[in-house]
Amino acid sequence: MANKKKVVVTGFEPFGDHAVNSSWVAVQELERLGLGEAVDLYVCEVPVEYQAVQCLLPSLWKEQQPQLVVHVGVSGLATTVTLEQCGHNKGYKRLDNCSFCPASQCCMENGPDCIKSVLDMETICGRVNESNMGITVSVSKDAGRYLCDYTYYTSLYLGRGRSAFVHVPPLGKPYSSQELGRGLQAVIQEMLTLLEGENTEGGDTHNRLCYHKH
Fold first, then answer.
1. What's this model's pTM, rounded to 2 decimal places?
2. What is the set of active-site residues?
3. Distance (Å, whole) CA 104 – CA 102
């Protein structure tokens, strides 16, 4: 198939109390499951470092030319698979794995405060929960002002909103790696279905970007 859809999915390396990062474990499980014949899936592990993210993301978008980039991160507070609707530009004070944080405490000088994904996470959440797959999905509008939020904002900016962020709980709280992999697969398949719909309606996703100032 010449016109396979390219999807990039990333997880993060271990950090802090997370000696095993369930996000990368879940992404590796997803790689085993795949996203179906029509999708070319590319996965990679992202360092928990602001400067590494600034180098890695532009090259991912440029070299892979993906239809969609989905970043997955772990949240010690999460008990569900959580879909993040938007990324934030400011408030990055927490030190990364290299004991670094941006002097400006923001992703992009003069960038909009918040960028929303073109994907309606409420719709995706509803569809996956209705499928009764035994994994609960919820929606959040605050990705936490650390590497997760930082990565998401940068990716939304580079991809004109064609990005998504999924927070997963730590392993076994309550889901196994297999369950997290299945959950990611279901969520991303719904995301691709929604994007298909937008493309067939001929809507220009760029105009749907919400650059609102708080």
1. 0.92
2. 148
3. 5
| pLDDT number for residue 201 | 56
Tell me the β-bridge partners of 183.
none
Question: Looking at the predicted structure, is the pLDDT value of residue 138 above 50?
Answer: yes
At 203, is the pLDDT very low, low, confident or very high (cuts 50, 70, 90)?
very low
Range of the domain at 35: 5-208
Q: Are 143 and 87 in contact (CB under 8 A)?
A: yes
CB crowding 59-85: b at 16 or more within 10 Å, else e: ebbeeeebbbbbbbbbbeebebbbbbb
Q: Is residue 213 part of a domain?
A: no
Among residues 204, 205, 185, 187, the alpha carbon closest in space to that of 84 is found at 187
| Residue 150 contacts residue 94 (beta carbons within 8 Å) | no
CATH number at residue 184: 3.40.630.20
pLDDT of residue 2: 56
Tell me the pLDDT tens digit for each residue of 77-126: 999 999 999 999 999 999 999 999 999 999 999 999 999 999 999 999 99
Which among 58, 60, 34, 64 has a CA at the least distance from the CA of 45? 60
